[in-house]
């Protein structure tokens, strides 16, 4: 039973929130090795915040993606929030315009670099966005998600150029960037929602 005033989220948005909640501890643990140990908490809290902005059941994918963007932009601590929010603004815009979400990921890659300054190889979410953008995939399909996961995994071999983990240098080698794992997870959930 929804509490008074609360809107019931679309099923996939609920899945999105629940999946980030269940990934909270694992991502925090990875961020303990490579940062300050809070990225899972930051992303789970941001995901939860999207629910207060959601238009509810029957909302189209673009509206749900926009709720995610707003939740991440406005309700998070940590550097991941604004950058995820920015990325989701671009992905939502692609959904709204009826172009492939892969086009949105390409715009997201450009926007995140413009604002955050990270380039591919700096051990950030840019490595995931870049992997999808350059995968040749025309839709956000299984191949595109495979590229996203490979992009996240590839950060294991990178020492950090941006963000908090840049202070740790080579100590992070062997550990994937938790923000990149979170972005790959987010894109996989969007693809599962039927967004292409
Ligand atoms: P904080 O370091 O402020 O605690 P979070 O833990 O919320 O931030 O998020 C850290 C993640 O944010 C990193 O794992 C990385 O993927 C991402 N990140 C940090 N700085 C940048 C940047 N300049 N560009 C892209 N992604 C970044
Ligand atoms: Mg952190
Ligand atoms: Mg922090």
From TrEMBL:
Source organism phylogeny: Bacteria, Bacillati, Actinomycetota, Actinomycetes, Micrococcales
Source organism per UniProt: Dermabacter vaginalis
Transmembrane segments: none
Name of the protein in question: DAK2 domain-containing protein
Domain DhaL as annotated: residue spans: 7-192
Domain of life: Bacteria
Residues of the full protein shown: 358 to 553 of 567
